[in-house]
Amino acid sequence: MNASFSRRPLIKPATWIAPAERGVFETAGTTAHRLASGPDGWVERLGDDVMISHKNDVALAELISGLEKWAQESGWFPSRVFTRFLPLKNDERISPILRTGDMTLPLTTVVTENGVRYGLDFAAGYSHGLFLDQRINRTQLRLLKPKRMLNTFAYTCSFTVVAGLVGAETLSVDLSKKSLDRGRQNLALNGISEAKHRFIADDAQELMPRLERKGERFDAIILDPPTFSRNDKGRLWQVEQHFEDLVNAALELAMPKCAILLSTNCTKLDTVVLERRSRQCAKIKRRAVDYLRLAPQVDFPSGHGSSTLWMMVR
Ligand SMILES: C[S@@+](CC[C@H](N)C(=O)[O-])C[C@H]1O[C@@H](n2cnc3c(N)ncnc32)[C@H](O)[C@@H]1O
């Protein structure tokens, strides 16, 4: 056997969207979507730019050559290519690196999703500002037309923007004031005044019971927490351990007919587990619930993106 061949690592190639699919996204007013998803990385189109996220150098090389081929086939060439290493540990996360393109251009940009505008910042840290796998849930929220929405773990408030566009009053909660400030900018980008929108930089776990005691109630609640975090007082959040606490707190705040989004990146909590564990909470709280599972997004092959499920309170 050829020695160099035997040493070549075996990698499963990434799945690329069909070149024609980009036109379908453009027609829908969407300039932010995945181009490719592989076992060790993925490629996102973000307006005029591309970001390649990779777990190792082999995946990076494969995604770069895949992008060159896909660009030739589609006739669409990114203005800049950023790359981002995906470390195993959160504390090893670093900002993306500009790999090709004009270094003098601003590191911020604006993308659209179904005509809605979101600001991205490639220099803000590990994440640019928009989780593309939540597109389907943002679309669903828009269809639900909530009147009062609670957005916990709100990050840059993409769900708040969508709720604001259909006239909802909202409350967005996140530990990071900087992220909430970006949420305010996202509202402004879409011409939405802040009059009906509140932003609280706090621990969602601690705030939700206080909201309940104040009599606040909502007809849509977004629960999309990180797998792990720690607040400024050292309090630990671990989704596997605290999932029931979060769902119970949300059920206390839920009006009849409230739609609660359950979403997580934790691989141990797939939609079957999310349903089983949240159903038990609803039973104890004596709330009747149904579940809504949405069709997968065309740019996220099975097994990619968060596990998400809507719990619909009757
Ligand atoms: C996965 S992101 C949420 C993404 C968001 N739902 C979206 O679609 O854009 C997690 C966010 O939770 C925030 N966070 C982490 N722990 C928190 C806590 N205990 N209370 C409130 N926010 C928290 C982080 O600052 C981060 O912005």
UniProtKB/TrEMBL annotation:
Q: Which GO terms describe its molecular function?
A: methyltransferase activity
* Coiled-coil boundaries: none
Q: Name one Pfam family in it.
A: Methyltrans_SAM
Name the InterPro entries for this protein: SAM-dep_methyl-trfase (IPR019614), SAM-dependent_MTases_sf (IPR029063)
Q: Which UniProt keywords apply?
A: Methyltransferase, S-adenosyl-L-methionine, Transferase
Q: Which residues form the S-adenosylmethionine-dependent methyltransferase domain?
A: 108-283
Question: What are the recorded Gene Ontology BP terms?
Answer: methylation
What broad taxonomic lineage does this protein's source fall under? Answer: Bacteria, Pseudomonadati, Verrucomicrobiota, Verrucomicrobiia, Verrucomicrobiales
E.C. numbers: 2.1.1.191
Q: What is this protein called?
A: 23S rRNA (Cytosine1962-C5)-methyltransferase
